[in-house]
Amino acid sequence: MSPKSNIVPLAIRPSEVPLTALFKALGDELRINILRVLKEGSLSVTELCHIFELGQSALSHHLKVMVKANLLTRRHEGTVTFYRRQLAEGHHSALINEALHLVDGAPLSQTLTEGMARVRKLREQNSLAFFQDNSHRFREQQELIASWEDYRQATLHLLDRQTKQPLQSILELGPGDGSLLADLSKRALTVVALDNSAAMLEQARVKSTGAKNIHFTLGDASHLIEQQQHFDAVIANMVLHHTPNPEATFRDSAQLVGAGGVMIISELCPHDQDWAREVCGDLWLGFEPAALTRWADQAGLQSQAELFIAQRNGFQIQVRLFQRPTL
Fold it and tell me: How far is CA 219 from the centre of its chain?
């Protein structure tokens, strides 16, 4: 079985916090630096202790203050707790976003930069050891790379947060065995499942027999572009790293997003586990978040929200939401 994962519900959180709690959380240099190191990823309590060279009891107080102020959220994976930035929501969202912009404008100290480098190196070593122990059964347990439930919840949260439903249409690129299609069918009048593998498309069809508003299409995005189709939402979970030209795939997918529509991408962050090419058929070993942002800018999409989900095996998932401006 894949590692157990328990995500604290992303949308279930008090909508407002007192300004005093927010300013208290921001009024400490250590807490400001915690926000800085969590800019592009989630970190466990142990990893944060290593970076800041603090004991867990001392650090936990600061993390509790920041969670209470809705600046951070936590996620439990087994006995390990990961922290990441909370998406700014509510009446104070503009204030929080401006504060984060100012926080991110200051460079990290050399000590923190070196501490983060040590943590990344340790993750790489843990990842290698983990898969050395599990490689003999990996083909039957591909979720050992990344928990599908983790990015399923994140994908649906971002979709629900950013769109007014029911949508007219949703496109899922590379739906795999169709596990997400039932959720999508409840959020749109029409769902299109697009895959260039007839075998995978048939698996998705079998799993989705109960939903009558799902259409299965064999091919790639270029076929829908030729038909001048557009969708309110385009979703691609763990697709780009399997494609020969991920930038072109991103660009073609973006063309299918209608005015005001969204594209949600879940992908692996960069890693150096080259064995994934042979064992999983991966052509690319993850992507820098900045690369996806750049591709979106070039395609006329705006980055609106992002979630980073660390896995205990050392991999990290990025779930990104991009939106096309309304006409």
Answer: 26
Do 201 and 69 lie in one domain? The reply is no
Structure tokens that stand for 186 in this block: 């409840």
Q: Is 179 left (phi over 0), alpha (psi -120 to 50) or beta?
A: alpha
CB 262 within 8 A of CB 163: yes
Residue 307 exposure: Cα atoms within 13 Å on the Cβ side: 27
pTM of the entire predicted model: 0.64
Strand intervals (E) in 64-123: 72-77, 80-85
Q: Which of 8-12, 148-152, 153-157 has the lowest mean pLDDT?
A: 8-12
Classify 176 as helix, strand or coil.
coil
| Count of domains observed in the chain | 2
User: Do 148 and 119 share a domain, yes or no?
Assistant: no
**What tokens does 80 get?**
């390990």
Q: How far apart are CA 272 and CA 124, in angstroms?
A: 8
Tens of pLDDT along 25-39?
Answer: 999 999 999 999 998
Q: How far apart are CA 57 and CA 260, in angstroms?
A: 46
The domain in which residue 317 lies consists of 143-323
**CA dist., res. 61 & res. 66, Å (int):** 9
